[in-house]
Design brief:
It contains eight helices and ten strands. By secondary structure, the protein is of the alpha/beta class. Helix 2 links the parallel strand 2 and strand 3. Bound molecules: fructose -6-phosphate (F6R). The site of fructose -6-phosphate (F6R) has 13 residues, from helix 2.
Length: 263
Amino acid sequence: MQVVLRPTADEASSLVARMIAKALRAKPDLVLGLATGTTMERLYGILGRMHREEGLDFSLVRTFNLDEYIGLAADDAHSYHYYMYNHLFRHINIDRRNTFLPDGMAKDLKSEARSYEEKILRCGGIDIQILGLGTVGHIGFNEPLSSFYSRTRDKSLTPTTVAQNSRMFEEPSLMPRRALTMGIGTILESKALILLATGKSKAEILAKAIEGPVTSMISATAIQLHHDCRVIVDEEAATSLQAREYYRWIYENEPEWEEYRGK
Ligand code: F6R
């Protein structure tokens, strides 16, 4: 795992955007795993701008989102289908037929979960999975005690997650208590992972997730098991990390980061 600290949330998000852009230029039909949430809004804003101003081409990209609420239709303004359309898809030249999210309205959730996994496999697997970090330590909606072998499935949300996300709903009680989410096993099969975390509210859980012991109580600790994982954070999220100086040194000195430095 490599951890990169950037001074602000804008700079952290811009670094992730440039990493995605580089992968996309190398493989125009990239299979990109996507997350939703407040953290990602900045990243998607930058990707939209890169499309408009630099002609970053998404025409062949395939995308798979981590999760969707159970019981919300795609046109519901609180659904992740809607979020993705609003924050990213309508701002880039992606073919909507190549964008996939689990169907939270499916009558048979088990079969929807199976078919979602099959679609990922048919596309050749996810090249880069983008992850956010929940205050409960989840990635996707893999709440505490999710098995590291888990696959896409329906999952009940913890009170912490409900408290985190219900502020997006005008009436908090309307927030669904269950979701369809890729499993930890599904996520770990991605060829590469990039976790983006910003802001003070993530500092404590971020330190546990990347420097603490691996435990299913904090499902984000599973990323420590991935062989190709990068964690990009801003200074606020980094305040509780023990090895901050080492991470700074890596970014300033490792050849991998040279092309990004000073921009
Ligand atoms: C949502 C998802 C979640 C979020 C996490 C952080 O698709 O995968 O794991 O990334 O809850 O959310 P924010 O960015 O709103 O703090």
